[in-house]
Specification:
single chain, alpha/beta, Rossmann fold, 2 domains, seven-stranded mixed sheet, 17 strands, oxidoreductase activity
Amino acid sequence: MAFILGVARERADGERRLALTPETCKKLVAAGAQVRVERDAGTGIGVTDEAFAEAGAQLVGDANAALGDADVVLCVQPPSAEAIAAMKQGAVLVGSLQPESDPARAEALRARGIVAFPLEKLPRTTRAQAMDVLSSQAGMAGYKAMLIAAQLAPRFFPMLTTAAGTIRPSKVLVVGAGVAGLQAIATAKRLGAQVEGFDVRPETREQIESLGGKFLDLGVSAAGEGGYARQLTDEERAEQQRRLGEHLKNVDVIVCTAAVPGRPAPKIVSAAMVAGMKPGSTIVDLAAETGGNCELTKPGETINANGVTIAGPLNLASMGAFHASEMYARNAFNFVSLLLKDGALAFDWDDELLAKTVWPPRPQPETAAA
């Protein structure tokens, strides 16, 4: 028996992405789903209702019609408590849900018995890479952050030889070498800048250098066991900060990308460091959504601090909504595929990707005493 899968237009301010594309819609229909899509849901990504209809979707007039009796609901941003209350009892909800961040949303999920799969909780394993929305969306965010930096900076990125003389390339530093940081490094390199990357994990050197960047070694290693960074001592951190501050005096552009899932972003660039930078320098803080890596960042604003421009853009992935949605929708489809057997919903709780992602967490079976 076919199951109903619903997708409504995203209603969060500034959100243009969608958790479904005609490509994944067609695959879901082939997998046994009856797909219902709210009309005009694809406007933000330039996809027409006709394209969804051709992919096999049933177009409906509003969110309630799309989600009200859906067995599976896909979303990008967490739905409101009111939207959850209107969903079918026991429905499956898949998306970036952040249930712990909003008590009303968490209570609504519990009250309706929603089987929620917050994709941000997905284990970071090789098998899960095809479903990893954090990585796919971080790639777009890093790309857009560097383009914003290039737009705000009062200088060219590449070296140019002109009739008015030679223009030296901009010196760009990317703080954090996760997915977003590496994409930012690659983008700055394509734009012709002189690029450096900094991360407390020394093993990121090879990744930074593979993209044409130079690893900024401040002489303080945070290498720990198992590939994880250890916590620096107060003395080590002070020395690292001193050396970074000295280095920033000669940097034209900083793009900050360091983030820790579920925790405030680490403060790396202090107000004193900003004060020591050259007037006309630019900082773009991709970590603004969780407080920012720069002490002076104001989320959602672009400010001037003693001649240094500091931007704290929000929801950068939505700025590249078409390709961000394409990646997100594939991630979501790959995860939903784990919930299906012979065209019907079937939960294999022995699968760690399901068991470790589901919210509320399922009770673990008791282990027999030895």
